[in-house]
Amino acid sequence: MSWSPEIENGFEKLTQKAPADYFQGRRAANICRPDNVIAFLRSDAEALKERTFESRPHHRQVLILNLRTGGSLSVDGAVYRLEPGEAFLVAPYQFHFYLDTDQRDIRWLFITFETKDTAELLPVTNRPIHFDEPLAQTALSIAQGFYQPDKSSEQSSNQIVIETTSLLSRLSSLAAEQAQLFSQTDDSRRDHVIIRKVNRLLHERLSVGIDVVEIAARLNLSERYLRKRFQSMTGLSLGSYLMHYRLDRAVKRLVHSDASLTEIADDCGYGSLAAFSRTFTAKMGVTPSQYRKQSAK
């Protein structure tokens, strides 16, 4: 069988080389091994905002690759600007939602996955990272592979996981190169200032049962104006946002602390254990105790 001159020449050069040690080779380091990979594209900004709060707090990593149209997102109270050609990784259980975009027509690719190698992802979490053409091509291949008719086959699934591993490794390298250039993007626009102030108030006063009336008063805004502006920014009413914020904090405490259910109910401003259990079960489909047991498996 004949090979191309490029391949022939490449192997010819290897005839002059040999390993210094036949038992010590290259070992993998700082590699994230993803599993249960899902890929999907969002093309409508309004639909993106609406679907944000349809999903429950979860244990999956969420990688966002902006292919078209800049926009902003809020992650655990901080606001980040995401330009075309930038990626952003949201960690499990982080409270995140999408704000305004430069236009309604967007191309934001989402690759979500599970992994036990969370430490390896810390350098690429909660920061916009510029990505290149090869990475975009890998992301496209992952998305196309996910929707192949034989996606349930072992070979197809293995290929998607391998490509996602490669993508995350490349993203980590790009993050290291860009480390000195990064600073948190906290837009100074009035709308985003309101978002940050609301999040700060919730962080500080959730346990005392803060409500929309108190938030408006502390921000020196009329309740009507605040509700209207918040709805236009996030696509969600401020009352619903409060409910999701409480639920998200409760989930984090159930998963990451040994606090009693009564302590969690108080910390999240539910007023009583009964109110906490009733609301949590209605939204999550299981009781707080059941959720804690499931997350510990």
Quick tags:
11 helices; alpha+beta; 297 residues; sequence-specific DNA binding; Jelly Rolls; Arc Repressor Mutant, subunit A; elongated; 2 domains; Helix-turn-helix transcriptional regulator; 3-stranded antiparallel beta sheet; HTH_AraC-typ_CS; 46% helix; activator; DNA-binding
Characterization of this structure:
It is a single chain. With 297 residues, the chain is an alpha+beta fold. The chain has 2 domains: 35-181, Jelly Rolls, CATH 2.60.120; 190-295, Arc Repressor Mutant, subunit A (Orthogonal Bundle). Helix content is 46%, strand content 17%. Strands 1-7-2-5-8 form a 5-stranded antiparallel β-sheet. A hairpin with a 2-residue loop joins strand 3 (71-75) and strand 4 (78-82). Helix 9 crosses helix 10 (273-284). The protein starts with a helix and ends with a helix. Residues 183-188 have low confidence and may be disordered.
What CATH architecture label of the largest domain applies?
Answer: Sandwich
Low-confidence stretches: 183-188
Instruction: Give the DSSP E fraction (strand runs of 2 or more residues).
Output: 15-25%
Number of helices: 11
Provide the number of structural domains: 2
One letter per element, helices H and strands E, the order comes to HEHEEEEEEEHHHHHHHHH
Counted beta strands: 8
The radius of gyration over CA amounts to: 23 Å
Outline the biggest β-sheet: 5 strands, antiparallel
